[in-house]
């Protein structure tokens, strides 16, 4: 066993873990933070993306013990006081998801991208999220969501929140 | 998929790491950024009894100027290498190639030293280190030794790093004022290079005074395209010169055939990408 002391979504934890435990397992199975999902299990898809000391990482390719002393931010720690993060809002408004499985990782990658480049063009968005696979959307609305979030996050921006688009096929 | 059980050691100095490696015996594995090792452990393609994590040795992340060289700690993450001002200014080709490695998440964790020590022939940085005559500083029980890039890459996933030794630093001569380009071909974002070409040129007026060319994934190790270099030197930096030099791109190669590409297709790619890379480097 090895000890890991880590801050996850603002809360301090100290746990004994097996050295072979992956960070994503630790988050999900030990801390119950199941918002971070396991996708491909081979470090390709990025669904398990979290921030480690402020940088996006694939938590299936980091050992829990490697996070010792670090600060981890997961999708569950993004909202503040019940208010969704602008990237979360933008994914909602722009339909940046269909099945939603890639969404936690996609949003964490996008938050990192926007921290680094607050006003990315379309190519920069596509390159910034190239570590994250989506098999539903064709990425169109994901790219729109990230650019929308960039607008919302501009200093002094007051971007009106769109009302949800009407759903076709209702009575 | 979960790795097999192992013991974990996190030394705080190179000396401690060398001692830990000696104590652990043959069955130990060094963990750098883990972006190749962890998937391998999870697939149980490897099951070392001891993992020695270099992540606790802060010194190994440093990038510094050392006379006529840029010294990069083996644990410097790709993200740091590609953005470092010294690297951008003096070893531009390394910065350019590093920016094409995998994806942002992997570049945050993966390291220069880890990638070079892993020596995957499809990895992007070996061709750059070879073309630019990098030196590899390797620490062992009896001190450190330095190995040139031409001796470092031995075979498929095999380097000059011996048993009980650790790669600690990679030193690049300064190529200040050279122009360069890394031309990579793959089918999908974040995929490995099917073939890639690293080119650095020293231009004098409109002509090529010196040329360095390295090939990725055209053999069991990175390959220095000496024939291309020789064909470029003294020529005007033109499309014709690039095309003529590119005809030499497959000399000394032994391109693999695999699910991505057959050998003859890779040879075609090597010629086409060499032409493109030379032209892009020439501006």
Number of spatially distinct domains of chain B: 3
CATH level 1 name of the largest domain in chain A = Alpha Beta
Helix content of chain A: 25-40%
Total helices of chain A: the number is: 5
Count of helix runs of chain B: 12
Strand content of chain A: 5-15%
Using the coordinates shown, work out and report the CATH topology of the largest domain in chain B.
Uridine Diphospho-n-acetylenolpyruvylglucosamine Reductase, domain 3
Stated plainly, the CATH topology of the largest domain in chain A is called: Ubiquitin-like (UB roll)
Low-confidence blocks of residues of chain B: none
Oligomeric state? heterodimer
Instruction: Report how far apart the termini of chain A are.
Output: 58 Å
Helix content of chain B: 25-40%
Summarize the structure.
Chain A contains 5 helices and 5 strands. Chain A has 171 residues and is an alpha+beta fold. Chain A folds into 2 domains: 2-77, Beta-grasp domain (Ubiquitin-like (UB roll), Roll); 86-153, DNA polymerase, domain 1.
Structure, explained:
The complex is a heterodimer of chains A (171) and B (283). Chain A is α+β, with helices and mostly antiparallel strands and 171 residues long. Chain A folds into two domains: 2-77, Ubiquitin-like (UB roll) (Roll), CATH 3.10.20; 86-153, Orthogonal Bundle (DNA polymerase, domain 1). Chain A has helices spanning 23-30, 86-93, 103-116, 122-128, 140-153, and strands spanning 2-8, 11-17, 49-52, 55-58, 71-73. The relative contact order of chain A is 0.15. Chain B has 283 residues and is of the alpha+beta class. Chain B has three domains: 7-54, Uridine Diphospho-n-acetylenolpyruvylglucosamine Reductase, domain 2 (2-Layer Sandwich), CATH 3.30.43; 63-168, Uridine Diphospho-n-acetylenolpyruvylglucosamine Reductase, domain 3 (2-Layer Sandwich); 182-282, Enolase-like, domain 1. In chain B, strand 2, helix 2 (37-42) and strand 3 form a beta-alpha-beta unit. The relative contact order of chain B is 0.12. Chains A and B meet through strand 4, helix 3 and helix 4 of A and helix 2 and helix 6 of B.
